[in-house]
Design goal:
Layout (H helix, E strand, L loop, with lengths): L10 H13 L6 H14 L3 E5 L2 H11 L7 E4 L6 H8 L3 E4 L11 H6 L5 E4 L11 H10 L3 E5 L7 E2 L2 E2 L6 E5 L12 E5 L2 H10 L4 E3 L2 E2 L10 H32 L17 E4 L3 H10 L26 H9 E4 L7 H15 L1
Parallel strand pairs: 2-3, 2-4, 4-5, 5-8
Antiparallel strand pairs: 1-9, 6-7, 8-9, 10-11, 12-13
Helix pairs in contact: 1-8, 2-8, 3-4, 3-7, 8-11
Pfam families: DegT_DnrJ_EryC1 (PF01041)
Organism: marine metagenome
InterPro entries: DegT/StrS_aminotransferase (IPR000653), PyrdxlP-dep_Trfase (IPR015424), PyrdxlP-dep_Trfase_major (IPR015421), PyrdxlP-dep_Trfase_small (IPR015422)
Length: 353
């Protein structure tokens, strides 16, 4: 079976972990500091703050920007649960807005229509590795004096408009879950140019400590370990080649499959964390591919407001609702051989013939 995802770990990652284990410093230490520096440099921002996972990164971003009870944050319902749960963890209310007709990211027109006196921030997701419509969202956030916070969990090193994911807004946050374009095993990171936000995140991720046993505020244990950071530093050095291969595969798919399904546009810095097609016969196609040894995924089968914890946040999002019945992700990870790619293409085209 050709898997939908395959984390790429090699001898370099094993050697990095071994080096940390031998050093005796395995919790947050010098590796985390170096990883933060290198990731900030890659994103083109002043500060990066590493955390235990993407959700804890998102939570700290909300808290450090004083988002809390009584505030509304505009976001998309067509995404992973954490996009909205981090807003709720801070005590604020997610306001769900529809996605673009020709893509998978927030529709700026609908965003502007949904702004109220309670709106504090716009929280776009760079879904599947494609940057959201950042120029329009920046314009809207400035016009209405709102924070722009980027959910960059799927967009490591996505670049357009002279900037990269995590560098456009007040802050961004990333996930390093094993299926992502780069991994630390589990992990997350916050990116920002605001030194106050960065410092506040650093304090809160370590029980509110500004120095050992000096707890200046309430905080959490959201730290990344040096073991994870060591993996991340090696993965970061490979990210460029990983993303290049993903784009190559996506371009091959687009050429071969565009007559049969709606293929994703290669635009807005897309790094193809997922290669996601749209197809009205999605369920039958998925069954056929799985029966023929091609792994697939449905991201996402439901909108966030369809889940019990968010059912009272229901909104009118017809484009997003349509996507839940049509999207299907095909393998696009860099471990695929040219023969694997050909096998996927042949399986899809054979289904339609």
């Amino acid at each position: 079976v050709i898997p939908i995802a395959s984390p790429q770990m090699g001898s370099e990652e094993r050697a990095a972990v071994d080096r940390v284990l031998r050093s005796g410093i395995i919790a947050q230490g010098p590796e985390v500091a170096k990883f933060e520096e290198e990731f900030a440099s890659m994103c083109g921002v002043e500060h990066a703050v590493a955390t235990s996972n993407g959700t804890t990164a998102g939570h700290l971003v909300m808290l450090s920007n004083n988002i809390g009870p009584g505030d509304e944050v505009i976001t998309t319902p067509f995404t992973f649960f954490a996009t909205a749960s981090v807003i709720m963890m801070a005590g604020a209310k997610p306001v769900f807005v529809d996605v673009e007709k020709d893509g998978f990211c927030l529709d700026p027109v609908q965003v502007e229509k949904s702004i109220t006196e309670k709106t504090k921030a716009i929280h776009p997701v760079h879904l599947y590795g494609e940057l959201a419509n950042i120029p329009s969202l920046i314009e809207i956030s400035k016009k209405h004096n709102l924070l722009l916070i980027e959910d960059s969990a799927q967009a490591h090193n996505a670049e357009s408009w002279g900037g990269k994911a995590g560098s456009f807004g007040k802050a961004g946050w990333f996930s390093f879950y094993p299926t992502k374009n780069m991994t630390t095993s589990e992990g997350g990171i916050i990116t920002t140019d605001d030194s106050r936000v960065a410092e506040h995140c650093r304090t809160m991720r370590a029980h509110g400590m500004t120095a050992q046993y000096q707890h200046t505020e309430f905080g959490y244990n959201y730290r990344m370990t040096d073991i994870s950071a060591a993996i991340g530093r090696v993965q970061l050095s490979k990210l460029g080649s990983f993303n290049t291969r993903r784009r190559e595969i996506a371009n091959l798919y687009n050429k071969a499959l565009s007559d049969f399904v709606t293929v994703p546009e290669n635009r807005r810095g897309h790094i193809f964390h997922q290669y996601t097609i749209r197809c009205e016969q999605r369920d039958q196609l998925q069954k056929y591919l799985n029966d023929n040894g091609v792994g697939t995924g449905i991201y996402y089968p439901s909108l966030l407001y369809d889940y019990p914890p968010m059912i009272n946040l229901k909104a009118n999002c017809p484009n997003a609702e349509r996507l839940t019945n049509e999207v299907l992700s095909l393998p696009v990870h860099p471990a695929l051989t040219d023969q694997d790619v050909l096998t996927v293409i042949q399986a899809v085209t054979t289904f339609f013939s």
